[in-house]
Predict the 3D structure of the following.
Amino acid sequence: MDKIKIGVVGAGAVGGVIGSLLAEKGYDVELAKRYNSAITLDEYTAIEITGAFGNRNILVKSVNGVTNFTSKKDVIFVLTKAHDAPKVVEQCLNFLNPGGIIVSSQNVMNVEDMLKVVGQDKLFGLIINWSANKVNKAKIDVVKEGNMVIGSFGNNSDSYLEILQRVLSSVAPTEISHNIIGDIWCRTIINSCISSVGALTGVSLGKFMLMPTTHTIFTRIIREAMSLAQALNVKVKNYGSLNYYEFIKHGIGPYFARKKMYRYMCRQNARFVSSCQRAIENNTESEIDYLNGYFVKMANKLNMSVPTNKRIYDMIKEIERGERSMMVENLLDYYLRHPKKYLKVVNVNKGE
């Protein structure tokens, strides 16, 4: 049994699975959760895990919020929504042992905000390639198996990475990446496609992928994002078998390869509902600022244009403000189909 003291912040589906499975393996784990977020027995939370990782009931030591951690930690996993992460990371700094580190899940691009708070030598990125849903306050269903990828934003981190790999392998197979930024860009790009179109339409992936317009939108999102990556000298990693550099090529071969990929996505993830869509339905803040919004921000910094991402970002902001509804017809929006014309409208409005 390791003597590492571990904190897990966020008792949602991912945090609940990681915290409980590490506790089951004998690690000293304390789970920081929201009030009444699960069934509590004294200072422990009872979590039932079902699905791809097996079925079991586990008791995890828990507290209500980071500020109630009972001891300082060697590793704190921050598994919250992207917009909450920088504030949570700042709180966690008060509960780190000397030499302690923070590991944050990175399926969207909020790295810059967290690096401002914690610095590159203490922050590590975690990519999670398995999926879980919270059935109720005390039950989590792991719906898809997958691995995890861990990487560092600083130097002299090999020993930390080896420890994290060993710890996280108790949950799922874990790989070390020496290009974690490329891994995060990989996930941000695909999530900018799936999450944004889900939020625009209000339907599952299987339904919106049946519309040819979706394929065109996906291709434009990816091409715009890859143009930014090239300008920033970011080497974007593959998303499974999807090689983004091959995907964006023109010609009949790449065209049919994209069609094949879209059909595969539809078959494998037909019932998937995007995180942005769920957030809007629940009247909570979505992560669109760290998806398409991130590409818009970087384009502004680089004096480049990403008109498709800009139009999608603005439309979802309209939905969040109650000025537009989620509906499939949004995919037929004139400016979404003609994004360069939308860019002209935006530039004219800026000049007024």
Notes: The chain has a mean pLDDT of 90. The first helix runs from residue 13 to 24. Residues 138 and 204 are 25 Å apart (CA to CA). The two ends are 65 Å apart (CA to CA).
